[in-house]
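S.,

Sequence below, as promised.
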Amino acid sequence: MSSAAEQEAVPKTDTGTAGAAADRITATGPQQRRPMVWPGTPMPLGARFRTGPDGVAGTNFALWAGGAEAVELCLFDEAGAETRLALTELTHEIWHGFVPGVRPGRRYGYRVHGRWDPWTGARWNAAKLLLDPYARAVDGEFTLPAEVYGHVRDWPEQQVADTVRDGRDSAPYVPKGVVVHDDDDWADDRRPKTPWADSVIYELHVRGFTKRHPGIPEELRGTYAGLAHPAAVGHLKQLGVTAVELLPVHQFAHEDHLLRRGLRNYWGYNSIGYFAPHAGYSASGTAGEQVGEFKRMVRALHDAGIEVILDVVYNHTAEAGELGPMLSLRGIDNRGYYRLQADARRYADYTGCGNTLHVVQPNVLRLITDSLRYWVTEMGVDGFRFDLAAALARSMHDVDMLSPFLAVIAQDPVLRRVKLIAEPWDVGNGGYQVGAFPPLWTEWNDHYRDAVRDFWRGALPDVRDLGYRLTGSSDLYAWGGRRPYASVNYVTAHDGFTLRDLVSYEHKHNESNGEGNRDGTSDNRAWNCGAEGETDDEGVGALRRRQLRNLLTTLLLSTGVPMLVAGDEMGRTQDGNNNAYCQDNETGWVDWSLLDQPRWRELTALTARVLALRHRHPVLRRRAFFSGRPQAPDGLRDLAWFTPQGAEMTEGDWYAPAATVGLYLSGRDIPGRDVRGEQVTDDSFLAVLHADHRPVDFLLPGPPWASAYELLLDTSREDQADPPGTVHRGGERLTVPERSVLLLRVRE
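The prediction came back faster than expected:
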């Protein structure tokens, strides 16, 4: 250990005065040609290039650091030389100053002075260069050597290591913020503004979606520019999705335990810069160029009619628990930003990631909402999916649907107009909140995922749950003015098996993650169709592909908002890894060569065909829950359920084991009117879902339901290029092939 660290290791507290801290500041850094610091303004927070007094161009710097004794602004030139400037202006706990001559592209950070007293939660350490929470761009990558920890990371007694202050300078080892020129007003951008009921979400990873795409120039693969390329946008358009949901693109850091194993955080759920596009996804540069590249990507997607939704991680940061690195918020004001336990050395952890942002604190709430508004107004995005949203809805301890965070969002004139998706749980007590979020919010519906998986693998004890899930989950969402589109329906997500792996593996195979296959869930609700993993058995392969068609078709015909995962439509596999968060390689990337194989091309074609049906028919995109009653005197009930015997299901049928259900959707009985005030009408449909391994004869309901039916879709067929088109009479017995979905349109 260095002598500097040894000197820091002895005192339990450092209670230096503000005056002493100021003396230390003026004694550090280069002394010649020091820039002047004018008072500037406390708002807006961050580094904002502008014209100052007397028409002088420069940058205003403002940092909230509530309990700090002093703050240094640290500017870095192209050679990496550091100049430290004291910010002496303090307004409402915000340290600020205007520095003439500092232009876009200049790198910077902060050193914040204060007490070192971990026992009370005070962890200031001015030896550590800190990233501005409001930095618009970040240059460099966090590699996490020992110098970037506020405490002595390798202290022999690890149980007290977090109390031993490390005095080594971290500046050579950490990324810097970059001053960015805000010069884009989005006047030429046209947002798609797709209504929720018409939305189809496609969850993708910027790098993973584009990294292996043969139609994207190699230098653009894995980047925002790659996603904006016509080859990438064209696939999305051809598929028929209306929105991409991007896995985290906020600047993030890799965890120490991954770096030690030669791995990286691939998914990005480890944010540290809530205003900065992750620099690793930029093809054009990291000195601010990533901002413009991200905006051009959004424009390209908007031009194609595709919205951009960001998966955002405001529940925790990359600084982890008390043994984590000091990168930003911990060194600015640990007690002001994080939830601490009664023992203030420890962090309250509702996220499983070591810390939890203290959203009840006004400065934290401001950070989050300022970030959200920035991405909408200045970066052009259309909505957000909130990771572990229940952690944000906690007041002091319990989840509270009247919490400050939810209240602020509900009244914000910008944020209440965009798409808001909750992952409605966290890992703390009482954190599971599916169905509990207020109006304006939609939710990931894991009840849907589990019911559909269980039905197609033959594990549902009865079909009550399936009935709710296929029709918008009214048991969860029919309250407070919520609509069926409050349910984001999904069978797979980034977290878990891919769709192909769901029918190929029953057990996780995460050995390549280096955690002894202990990571990732063991509750997969999967069926491998008779063999674990890849097999040359063509019978097993054909059954798996049929199950994929069944799962995709069920998802896309269900009421609610369907969410697909990139590559599922072409049979992407992760070789049984259900937690590929650290697999920044071919395991995690979409394999576009699958489209060279007819069997996987057919799956993609089926997905596009069912999505086209969904877009054409409003009865498949309902804006109101089913009532089970006719909407007009001469109408039918808007929803009816049938057994294979052609009889309407009774209460007893719902409680009995069943592998076959018939779902009748009346297009003549859709509530609501179109934009011109006209009644919405559509074709009527009968969908038959049959999960048994044997065919079944299904008696088609006759009048008044239908006199005839046209067969539109049969998932038992590998080739869906030409629709079956066969017409069957009402009252006729139709043989439904084993494990299949039939979709029939009513013909008069």
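The chain has a mean pLDDT of 93.

Coffee later?
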